Amino acid sequence: MSQTIYVATTNPGKLRDFAAAAASRSKLQIVPLPGLGSIPAPSEDEPDFEGNAKRKAVYYSRFAPGEIVIADDSGLEVDALDGAPGVRSARYADDMNFDHPGATDERNNQCLLAQLATASVTSRLARYRCALAAASGGACLLTADGAVQGEILSHPRGSGGFGYDPLFYLPELGQTMAEISLTVKDRLSHRGLAFRRLLSLLAEIGE
């Protein structure tokens, strides 16, 4: 019997990551929450990723009675910036009043580079974090998280991925997150790790 899990996001990069993580489960369908674009978004003002993920999952699950809805909150933490941009990763350039032309991802990347302009190479350690929450009927069922360690380069590399991927360097592979294949990204990315953990937990409560 197939199972459908609704994802509370329209971000094509995130949807691609979720689909890749679920590819090995032939009876599992991962689809965007129907009508998501017309639903007013909830505030995301929790102090951590898990809080925001739970808030979004619980909120959006009320629009799909009887179904499981998952939501994520993820971002980049840079040691030299005391963990910034953190939960504000998607809005970093706006928060910093960074004036730069281009799409949001490009502005955020350039803003990050500007903030790190005086940082030494050894202080460019960073990590991607992802928190996922599953909810149904306005109640949170469970949460899971994942993280991947890396470094921030001084210039972008690669055309794949999204967000800060062109700057997020994986020393063990010698590539950025924007240079690796989707298969490799699913295996080691913060979102892939969190999603597989979430699916395992969901399977346990469904037994």
From TrEMBL:
| Residues annotated to bind substrate | T9, T10, N11, P12, G13, K14, S74, F162, G163, Y164, D165, K185, H190, R191
One MF term from GO for this chain? nucleotide binding
Q: Please share the entry's free-text remark on the cofactor.
A: Binds 1 Mg(2+) ion per subunit.
Q: Which cofactor does it need?
A: Mg(2+)
User: What is one Pfam family matched by this protein?
Assistant: Ham1p_like
User: Record's SUPFAM superfamilies?
Assistant: ITPase-like
Q: Quick one: which residues bind Mg(2+)?
A: D73
- Please give the catalytic activity noted in the UniProt record: XTP + H2O = XMP + diphosphate + H(+); dITP + H2O = dIMP + diphosphate + H(+); ITP + H2O = IMP + diphosphate + H(+)
- Root EC class: hydrolase
Give the EC number(s) listed in the UniProt record: 3.6.1.66
- Which residues are annotated as active site? D73 (proton acceptor)
One BP annotation, GO: nucleotide metabolic process
State whether keyword Nucleotide-binding applies: yes
Quaternary state and interactors: Homodimer.
Annotated function:
Pyrophosphatase that catalyzes the hydrolysis of nucleoside triphosphates to their monophosphate derivatives, with a high preference for the non-canonical purine nucleotides XTP (xanthosine triphosphate), dITP (deoxyinosine triphosphate) and ITP. Seems to function as a house-cleaning enzyme that removes non-canonical purine nucleotides from the nucleotide pool, thus preventing their incorporation into DNA/RNA and avoiding chromosomal lesions.
Could you say which protein family the record assigns here?
Belongs to the HAM1 NTPase family.
Q: What is this protein called?
A: dITP/XTP pyrophosphatase
Please tell me the species this chain comes from. Answer: Acidipila rosea
Q: What is the lineage of its organism?
A: Bacteria, Pseudomonadati, Acidobacteriota, Terriglobia, Terriglobales
